[in-house]
Write a structure and sequence with these properties.
InterPro entries: HSP_DnaJ_Cys-rich_dom_sf. The chain is 0% helix and 21% strand. The model has no long low-confidence stretch (mean pLDDT 83). It is built from no helices and four strands. The N and C termini lie far apart (57 Å). It has 66 residues and is mainly beta. The protein binds zinc ion. The site of zinc ion (ZN) has 8 residues, from loops.
Length: 66
């Protein structure tokens, strides 16, 4: 006999860190990418990385009717 499952680790669900401007993790049903309203998609604000979108210029927002 052998314990093949010994030491098997369960990873957390995939998904990177969210930016403050994100409504939900990327790939969430009912959400989509939108241009960051804080930096208009430039990813920069006042010469620094936009804190709202994390410098991506894109935020994830709900697109479902509401
Ligand atoms: Zn931004």
């Amino acid at each position: 006999m052998s314990d093949a499952n010994a030491g098997k680790a369960q990873g957390a669900p995939s998904g990177g860190p969210l930016n403050p401007g994100d409504d939900a993790p990327p790939g969430t049903p009912g959400t989509g990418e939108n241009v960051c309203p804080a930096c208009q998609g430039s990813g920069k604000r006042a010469g620094a990385e936009c804190p709202t979108c994390g410098g991506t210029g894109i935020v994830i927002e709900g697109i479902a009717g509401g």
